[in-house]
Amino acid sequence: MKMTDEELLAALADPGEDAARMQRIATEIGSGFRLLSGRLGKAVAVFGSARPGLEDPRYAAARMLGSRLADAGFAVITGGGPGLMEAANRGAVEAGGTTVGLGIELPHEQALNPYLDVSMSFRYFFARKLMFIRYASAFIVLPGGFGTLDELFEALTLVQTGKIHEFPVVLIGTEHWSGLMAWIRDRLQDQGFIESDDIQLLRVTDDIDEAIELIQQCHLRQLAL
User: Fold this and answer.
1) What domains can you pick out in the chain, each with its CATH number?
2) What is the chain's mean pLDDT, rounded?
3) What pTM did the predictor assign?
């Protein structure tokens, strides 16, 4: 059975279905807006792999991150899955914060984690991405795979092109992200594909408190726009 995104991308096979698809997309986006509008206050989206388990030190770090974000007054939005997403939500719940999980329907279904105050599962990736950008003040990116990188570069593109402003993107884990940062400098900047200032759109740190301070400062500037 095809997933909804797959059906959309195969629209040429049945172009008469486009109007119905448009209605389903509009309904999903509207449901997301109604669910989240006015409920969160300031919020940060945390991305990371679903694979690390409870004994992984990265799980503990993500849990601490969620707790510190909640202490700073931020709701924590994740993809709602297990692993580092669960850890960030769990830390926020334990600190008395608000947690959100925005799941996605996949062929190998991942259940939403149990540390969520607000949750929704999406059929369409792009509708889900819209909710992350619309309701978060910043992205914090933990180690992860293709999905994590997809969210990272989506945000960077929107900031670089001026679609969103004062929106920090913070990578946690200098050792993990060092190869990517070197590639960006050596292949993208040095060959003229990006400007030197574009690298400054990314902050890399191991210090959770430093990341939160940066996000707090940017949030205040967002309010002043």
Assistant:
1) 4-224 (3.40.50.450)
2) 92
3) 0.92
